Amino acid sequence: MNDGLADPAGRFWAGSMAYDGTPGAGSLYRTDPDGTVVRVLDGLTIANGPAFTADGTTMYLADTAVGTILRCRIDPLSGDLLGSPETHVGVPAPRRQPPVRHHSPVRGEEPDRDLRRGARLPGTGRGKRRCGGREADGDARARTNR
């Protein structure tokens, strides 16, 4: 198992991944309040960072190895997925793993689409970062396209 989080209804969601990082070998699981465990989604590689909207109708889930953040519609009463996940954000392959020599800011996106916080993490620390076609450095605030 990898990263996990409880949704607003108290269900615990966690992703799995293969020890060797085999592409598509991971899954997303949900543990209901009665202890029932349900495999909800297959085909993930490294499931990370689940986050829910306050009303519990949408979950965002990163598949780190693939460089995507998925948006999953959820029935807030049952916890079932409504339809297939959609790609909310995709990161081009060459930008996913910068060399660890300097530091680069990483901005966290809240489900309401505002960029609210940042952290300095290992990375290149060079060049401009862009979000939605606008500079995202300093105190700039930007929104995703959706």
TrEMBL record:
Gene3D superfamilies reported for this sequence: TolB, C-terminal domain (2.120.10.30)
Domain spans labelled SMP-30/Gluconolactonase/LRE-like region: 1-81
Region feature (Disordered): 81-146
GO molecular function, one term: calcium ion binding
Basic and acidic residues: compositionally biased ranges: 106-117, 132-146
GO terms under biological process: L-ascorbic acid biosynthetic process
A Pfam short name: SGL
Superkingdom as given in the UniProt entry: Bacteria
SUPFAM superfamilies the UniProt entry points to: Calcium-dependent phosphotriesterase
Similarity comment: Belongs to the SMP-30/CGR1 family.
Protein name: SMP-30/Gluconolactonase/LRE-like region domain-containing protein
Organism: Streptomyces canus
